[in-house]
Design goal:
The chain has about 325 residues and is α/β, with parallel strands linked by helices. It has 11 helices and 8 strands. The chain folds into 3 domains: about 80 residues, no CATH class; about 110 residues, Nucleotidyltransferase, domain 5; about 45 residues, no CATH class. The N terminus is likely disordered.
Length: about 325
């Protein structure tokens, strides 16, 4: 019995410490200095998958510059903030530094210099990332979606070459703005990005994008269709797209059509992916273009209800004036 007990407690081997067991309350777990690694791991693993280190090495980045660049990018993806705030986040909250295991000393000026270096090389980096995405995911890249937005600065941005006062899409007309453009393929993979002046005319940006598509050989397939909203789809831009040999799908800027333009035929009905909304469609082909009229019965019913409510309020207001 004594020999059996000796085997159970691990005391059978000469020179080994006997095993000791204690009861533990599993609900009493206490952690210290915990750091997040989930989102950071996803970002870093994708950079590794894309061969991001090799891309930066090809652009003559040093090992330290690569390390700071990756820390900055992970910070922007997971915890957007200033360089100073990113240093605090990396030091106190995130486990990205441990996952990268670079050994570099963290300070905000190093991250700022990395940001400048990344921006100076962003066109080449975007092109290489686009090529790598095409290889990994077998992208067709036959559709090009192009759109713009703007963002604001809370500071004065005096002396900036691009920050301008204009209509903010975030309702911050009191702040200087910059305009951001993005080109993506049909799967949503980014291909090109540009920064324009905050007060730039949206239709006027398309030429720069088309010129960029010509220069970036192999970025897209030869059979390209450009998709844009009405803000960019001026007649001049449509003519420019045709001149460059691209197909296009745009939201028409025309407010109305002649009564005889749309044929008096039954609409084709399709059910949208939500399984509830029905969309009515009519197609008209001209010598140069095809026009597609779409309308939702649910949207029309909602607009009619809102119009009825507004009409009732106007009626009550007018009646109150005569009392």
């Amino acid at each position: 019995m004594d020999r059996a007990q000796e085997r159970i407690t691990g005391g059978g081997e000469a020179g080994e410490e006997p095993a000791q067991y204690e009861h533990v309350n599993i609900n009493s777990l206490i952690t210290n200095d915990a750091k997040t690694v989930g989102a950071e791991h996803v970002a870093i693993s994708q950079m590794n998958e894309y061969g991001f280190d090799k891309i930066l090495q090809g652009l003559d980045f040093t090992d330290d510059q690569i390390a700071y660049s990756k820390m900055l990018i992970v910070g922007r993806m997971v915890h957007p903030g200033s360089e100073r705030d990113t240093v605090r986040w990396l030091s106190e909250t995130s486990g990205a530094g441990e996952l990268l295991d670079s050994g570099v000393k963290l300070y905000d000026k190093a991250l700022h210099r990395a940001a400048v270096l990344l921006w100076e090389n962003h066109a080449a980096i975007e092109q290489e990332l686009s090529k790598r995405a095409r290889e990994i995911f077998s992208l067709k890249e036959t559709v090009i979606l192009y759109d713009l937005t703007n963002t604001y600065f809370e500071g004065s941005k005096r002396g900036s070459k691009v920050a301008r006062r204009y209509k903010s899409k975030e309702s911050r007309n009191d702040c200087p703005l910059i305009t951001l453009s993005l080109t993506v393929d049909e799967e949503g993979f980014p291909k090109q990005s540009k920064v324009f002046e905050g007060n730039v005319s949206e239709p006027g940006t398309l030429k720069d994008i088309l010129d960029g598509l010509k220069k970036e050989d192999g970025m897209f397939s030869n059979d390209r269709t450009i998709v844009m909203d009405a803000g960019i789809a001026t007649e001049e831009n449509i003519a420019l797209i045709r001149k460059n040999g691209y197909k296009y799908v745009v939201v028409s800027r025309k407010k109305s059509f002649e009564d005889t333009f749309w044929p008096e035929t039954d609409e084709e009905k399709i059910m949208l992916s939500d399984g509830k909304t029905t969309l009515g469609m009519k197609l008209v082909r001209t010598e140069e273009e095809a026009f597609l009229l779409c309308h939702s019965e649910a949207k029309e019913a909602k607009e009619a209800k809102e119009k009825s409510i507004l009409s009732l309020k106007e009626q009550r207001f007018e009646e109150a004036l005569w009392q």
